[in-house]
């Protein structure tokens, strides 16, 4: 059983900048979102003490996981980190907004639209490559493990795509909310709003 969470709002989320593997701190709004997420997880999971918390090691997921720990009564040193849960790498695009990318690499978004799944930004990673990375992580998880996972927008969509055996590319169209998390259990995927 996996409760899959996205990190909360960051400074770069607010500015519309691609983050990828670069770090950006949570905003005050993001900290409040993470606290509400932790409280919702605490309400939702009856046997929460049996769950292991795993996160991407990037700053925004680390900060979100620490706030979730505070809400569920865990020490921060109980968080496990796994590089395979990192966000998709946007390579040379990281730190730029979409209009800035289009200015620096004219026409590149048109090329990306032709095949988003296989498209690889300069020095970055495609969704197809990301699916192999997160798929390798998922392959190691057994159905009887109880996990709370804090990952990212694109990585979370692709984790759900791989878990749900979706066709290549289908995960790109999934939502990536910061006010909900997902329960992955027995082959099913359920979205759980934080405010429920």
Question: Please, could you describe this protein's structure?
Answer:
With 196 residues, the chain is an alpha/beta fold. It has a single domain, classed as Phosphoglycerate mutase-like (Rossmann fold), CATH 3.40.50.1240. The chain is 38% helix and 14% strand. The protein has seven helices and six strands. The protein has helices at 11-15, 28-44, 59-72, 98-104, 108-114, 127-139, 153-163; strands at residues 2-6, 52-55, 80-81, 147-151, 180-185, 188-193. The chain has a six-stranded mixed sheet, with helices on both faces. Helix 2 (28-44) crosses helix 3 (59-72). The radius of gyration is 16 Å and the shape is globular. The two termini are 20 Å apart. The mean pLDDT is 95.
Output the CATH homologous superfamily: Phosphoglycerate mutase-like
Number of domains: 1
Helix content: 25-40%
The SS-based structural class is: alpha/beta
CATH architecture call:
3-Layer(aba) Sandwich
């Amino acid at each position: 059983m996996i409760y899959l969470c996205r990190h909360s709002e960051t400074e770069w989320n607010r500015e519309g900048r691609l983050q990828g593997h670069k770090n950006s701190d949570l905003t005050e709004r993001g900290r409040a979102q993470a606290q509400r997420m932790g409280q919702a997880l605490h309400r939702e999971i009856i046997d929460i003490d049996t769950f292991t918390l795993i996160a991407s090691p990037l700053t925004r997921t680390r900060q979100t996981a620490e706030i979730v720990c505070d809400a569920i009564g865990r020490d921060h040193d109980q968080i496990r980190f796994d590089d395979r849960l990192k966000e998709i790498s946007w390579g040379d695009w990281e730190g730029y907004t979409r209009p800035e990318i289009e200015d620096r690499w004219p026409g590149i978004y048109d090329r990306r639209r032709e095949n988003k799944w296989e498209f690889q930004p300069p020095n970055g990673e495609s969704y197809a490559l990301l699916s192999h990375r997160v798929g390798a992580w998922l392959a190691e998880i057994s159905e009887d493990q109880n996990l709370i996972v804090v990952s990212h927008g694109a990585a979370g969509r692709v984790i759900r795509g791989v878990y749900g055996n979706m066709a290549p590319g289908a995960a790109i169209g999934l939502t990536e909310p910061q006010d909900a998390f997902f329960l992955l259990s027995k082959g099913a995927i359920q979205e759980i709003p934080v405010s429920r």
